[in-house]
């Protein structure tokens, strides 16, 4: 357990294109909303973490280009650090800054406009430039390799993954921020356009624009605010080998280790029994059961069966992605912090139509970075 709480949060609606707002305008909007949510002013923030990526922004030092928009120049300038990765990694770094003892509050902001880039070219750039990049492999092609390996090792089918898309796109009907919200049938998912076997159009998350922000505060500050704090009970991140050939893609040891460490910090012994809600980074349909298993919620190869039987449904014993998840909105980098915000809203009881039944006292949020989930960050949140 840590002494740090999320005291303010905000996210934009996620859309295919946000031509009405540039990067700075997206960041300015969520910064103001997060501060209002916390009941704080910009002068109350000691430290800033900006999260972005030069490839997605199409400019160098992209995370520094929005520092004025998030208020870091206030009163002659405040301490700023940058992260080029998922928003959950920015959250972890922001917590580390507070735990250093030098700061009491931190604002973490993240943005991405996928509409302004070419996803295939950009994600091809994350592979080794001598051996792998010339093959033309990119995020979806790599994910297809992982999905196929996972299917073959545990005797799964494309229909198993289709149930994830059906569940999450249906959940998104309750979420006004979601980009894709629809009622899908198994036949519709299976008949959707093949993209990279075994993945089809409805197995793949959309390209989205959006931004998000959270305000972190030490217990000394959080307990004085009127807003109900959401405490970070545990957090951990781990990475594994970069070369896909050096990994068994049907396994995710980095996630397994990160989960174990986060559970230890939070004092969790039986995650399925103790955690009330999960928000996973499901950029592709197969990822939800794979990540679900590695988080220790069920034996390996059994995640898809639990999803099909309704264990992770909106009204199931352990709801997973009641927001619709990343399959319903995928602003790269932002998506992990969105999972944190969605889990935090559930704990506050402020998730609106997507609020699950019963109190949510403990929730798990998850973010990934790199090809096929090379790096994972697990966050345990609670009252």
Structural features:
383 residues; Peroxisomal Thiolase, Chain A, domain 1; two-stranded antiparallel sheet; globular
Element layout with pairings:
Layout: E1 4-11, H1 23-38, E2 47-51, H2 54-57, E3 79-83, H3 87-99, E4 105-113, H4 119-124, H5 139-154, H6 158-171, H7 186-191, E5 194-196, E6 199-200, E7 209-218, H8 219-222, E8 230-239, H9 253-266, H10 271-274, E9 277-279, H11 287-294, H12 303-308, H13 334-348, E10 362-369, E11 375-382
Parallel strand pairs: 2-3, 2-4, 9-10
Antiparallel strand pairs: 1-7, 1-8, 4-7, 5-6, 8-11, 10-11
How does this model look, in words?
The protein starts with a strand and ends with a strand. The chain is built from 13 helices and 11 strands. Helix 3 packs across helix 13. It is α/β, with parallel strands linked by helices. The model has no long low-confidence stretch (mean pLDDT 95). The protein has a domain at 4-118 and 207-222: Thiolase/Chalcone synthase (Peroxisomal Thiolase, Chain A, domain 1, 3-Layer(aba) Sandwich). Strands 3-2-4-7-1-8-11-10-9 form a 9-stranded mixed sheet. A two-stranded antiparallel sheet has the order 5-6. A hairpin with a 2-residue loop joins strand 5 (194-196) and strand 6.
